[in-house]
Amino acid sequence: ISLYAIHNKTIIVNEGKITDIIDNNNITNSANYSYFYKNYPNANLIDLSGKYLIPGLFDMHAHIGSVLKNTFNRTFSEEMISNLIGYGVTTIRNPAGPTEESVDLREMVSSGKIIGPQILTAGRLLNSPLISIPFVEKEISTVEEIREEIENQSKSGVDFIKLYVGLAPDLVKEAINKSHSHGIKVIGHLYLTSWTDAANMNIDFLTHGVPVNPYLLSPDDRKIFERNGYNPFDHFLWLGLVDVDGKEIDEMIESLLKNNVYVDPTLSIYAAMVKDSPREQIIWPKVLQLTKKMYDNGVKILSGTDIPNFELVAGKSLHNELELLVDAGIPTSKVLQIATRNGAESLGILNQTGTIEKGKQADILVLHSNPIEDISNTQDIYMVISDGKIIDRNKILSR
Question: What architecture (CATH level 2) is domain 9-53+356-397?
Answer without folding.
Answer: Roll (2.30)
